[in-house]
Amino acid sequence: MSKYPTTRNFCFGKQIAWAGHQALRTYYGQGHFATVQAHFLRWRQFCDWLRDYYGIRDTGAIKSHHLDDYAEHLAQQVEEEVIAVTYAQNLLSSINTTLKALRGDGHIRIDSPSKRVGRRSHIRRELPTGYDWDRFQSAVDALYDVDLPRAAAVAQLARSLGLRLREAVLGNIPRWLRERDERGEIDVREGTKGGRGKEVARWVPVDGAGDCALENADSTRRELGCGNNLLKPHETYDSFVNDGEIHRARVILHRHGIKGYHDLRAAWACDRYFDLADRHAPVVMQCSPPDELSEEEAEAVNTLKKELGLELAQELGHNRLDVLAAYIGSYRS
Which of the residue ranges 199-203, 253-257, 264-268 would you say has the lowest mean pLDDT? Predict the structure, then answer.
């Protein structure tokens, strides 16, 4: 317990992270030191997130929607391959344990951590955040205002070319510029999921927005003395993403209503679907039920499942049509 009497954090102390540690020690009867330490380290990450995103410094202020937002935040990081699925699940489990130790009950908890991260929703039912270009540009401007130019460049690459976070950070920008000039598209090889880029070419078309994103990324890397990608010499991907600009940028994006870099990728997918099919993606049209589809719309669905769907899936770096619904929604409810 705290040396000084306080009612904050269920009387376990004034500092939210420290209070969680004290509650865990009490919960485990001053034993199980390794378990207590593991829970505490994961709990401390959650406390940092609460402070950065919501300014919360008292566990009594934590509500269920905060846990839901954090679970979604972790799910985004899993999708972007920043953290492993098992680690994200352990983070959520430790929050449940620590909150139970603090509160003395299980009223505020995350149900089924294994289902909250690591499993992509089969059908997107909400418009991707960042789909609106004005909102997106406002977020990019904010990143520049706080001197996060590389994070802004990554965001533009994700929104304008549908790149994963790792792909945008590690991509060979000079080669991309040559490919754009020669054939109007780029081959995404570095940072691909499962290392597929080394074996299978993945060509992504470059339009006006993509052209600006590439030029900006190239200008940024040269001004900051980076190599062929957006990393500085002696800088690692993990340090840039977990402790550097990308980590700080997530808070800025969140304040502008953008959940994360993966949602920017989904926004690109919706735009690209419109380019291919000449009609809005299902999630943009709010997922009209099948029995309300016109004959023309029904034909579009069949087309999506075949040639256009496969083309879009490949441009996203997938080889399965069923993954598309997580990006653009589906006409089937």
Answer: 199-203
